[in-house]
Design a protein that fits this description.
Length: 244
């Protein structure tokens, strides 16, 4: 996917997130983020937009912590919209040869990395907001969903922080039948991930949108993709795959 498409999605998803948050109300519980109310969700995503936009705008080459802000409820909509607009402007205006810090492998450039990451970050939290508002989230574009699966598996879960580990070697395959497949070789070390098929102890499969939401644990337990083989591996993913 190209950067312009990521930015189109980021723009639309931010607007959907805010709209769902307002419908749900600031005190509504977020079922997919235990302990959070909608105001916490909006404050988090608004903080992330400002953090990412600052890295791009200031050409930061080393990580720095996000700045927490306490925003009154009556200011949250405008505050969120401002941060959303800022990150979009910074990414649109950034040069193709932008140099700045990133934290996942695989993107062709830092600008592409941040456009992709913010599009997916915002989409996942848009789903959270819509689930808080009920009854069901808006659809996710299948091509974008497959891209998000790839980022999650080959980016986040190859890092040392991934808690998806196994006491003995096991193989988990994730696939959208006929289009894409990812194989996770599990051990006591971080998963080794490849974009291929082959024999597996467990296969999790389904449409890209379903897999995207399920792998981010945004579907209720028991709903979503098909599981073949050792269901304990699917349960391992559900309980240990939260990104930190």
């Amino acid at each position: 996917m190209d950067i312009d498409r990521y930015l189109e999605i980021l723009e639309a998803e931010g607007e959907l997130l805010l709209g769902a948050a307002v419908r749900a109300g600031w005190d509504a519980e977020v079922p997919t983020c235990p302990g959070w109310r909608v105001r916490d969700l909006v404050a988090h995503q608004g903080m992330v937009h400002r953090w990412a936009g600052g890295i791009v705008a200031e050409r930061r080459t080393a990580p720095f912590p996000p700045r927490e802000e306490t925003v009154p409820d009556d200011r949250l909509p405008d505050w969120f919209a401002e941060g959303h607009r800022q990150v979009l402007e910074e990414l649109r205006e950034a040069p193709e040869d932008l140099e700045c810090w990133t934290f996942l492998p695989g993107a062709p450039s830092p600008r592409a990395f941040w456009a992709r990451r913010q599009a997916h970050e915002t989409t996942v939290h848009r789903v959270d907001a819509e689930l808080a508002a009920g009854p069901a989230p808006s659809p996710v574009d299948p091509l974008f969903a497959a891209d998000g699966i790839d980022e999650l598996l080959t980016g986040f879960h190859t890092r040392p922080t991934s808690r998806v580990r196994s006491d003995r070697p096991r193989v988990l395959r994730v696939e959208t039948p006929g289009t894409a497949s990812w194989t996770l070789r599990l051990s006591q070390e971080p998963p080794r991930v490849s974009r291929d098929g082959g024999a597996a102890d467990c296969v999790i499969s389904g449409p890209a949108e379903t897999l995207y939401l399920a792998l981010w644990n945004r579907l209720p337990h028991g709903e979503g993709p098909a599981v073949e083989g050792d269901a304990a591996l699917a349960e391992l993913w559900r309980t240990a795959s939260g990104v930190r």
